[in-house]
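Exam revision sheet. Question 4 asks you to relate a sequence to its structure. Input first:
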Amino acid sequence: MSSSSTASSPSLRAAIQEVADALARCDFEEPAAAYALVGLVPIDGSAAVCAAREWEYAVLCLEILPASLVLEVRRRLPSLPWAQAVVPPPTEELPLAEEEE
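Answer key, structure tokens:
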């Protein structure tokens, strides 16, 4: 797995998902997964671009990774905007209420 400081949304999502999948398959343990994830943090670009990429990274980690791994990554990367990275709840369609007669 290679890190890319110019990763776009789909490739960043894919890279984080790849780590999550490898962890689920027991290809490696959480410390190795956390190490791989730290290497994916986008670091190039202007301050605004870097901030946007860091926010996106945090959101994707919260969305894709198991909670225990998120805690480890947060411990290793405390400067990322974890508090601002809120993952919206999944949008599931609610069953329509049957019309009363």
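Marking note for examiners. Residues 9-76 form one domain.
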